[in-house]
C-alpha cells in the first residue's frame, strides 16, 4: 500500500487513525500537519477526494 493512497490514511496511518479514535497527541499532530500543509498529507488529501471527509473526520458508517 502506498503512502499516498486514501486507504492508507483510512486504516494504516498511525497519526490519522489514532486521531480519529480520540488520541489527544495524535490529534495535535494532525492539526499541526493540516495547518502547515494546507489540508494534510497526500494520503489525507486522497482520502478527502475519495470518501469526501477530511483526514480528521470519521467516515459515516455504511448500512
Estimate percent helicity: 55-70%
Over all CA atoms, what is the radius of gyration? 11 Å
Beta-strand proportion: under 5%
Structural class: mainly alpha
Topology order in helix (H) and strand (E) letters? HHHH
Distance between the termini: 26 Å
Indicate the overall shape. Answer: globular
Number of helices: 4
Q: For the residues shown, what is the average pLDDT?
A: 88
Low-confidence runs = none
Number of strands: 0
The main β sheet shows up as: none
Report what the structure shows.
The protein has about 60 residues and is mostly helical. The protein is about 60% helix and about 0% strand. The protein contains four helices and no strands. The protein has helices at about 5-10, 15-20, 25-35, 40-50. The longest helix has 14 residues, at about 25-35. It starts with 5 loop residues before the first helix and ends in a 12-residue tail after the last helix. The model has no long low-confidence stretch (mean pLDDT about 90).
In short:
The protein has 63 residues and is mainly alpha-helical.
Key phrases:
about 60 residues, mainly alpha, 4 helices, about 60% helix, about 0% strand
Tell me the layout of helices and strands.
Elements: H1 6-11, H2 14-21, H3 24-37, H4 42-51
Helix pairs in contact: 2-3
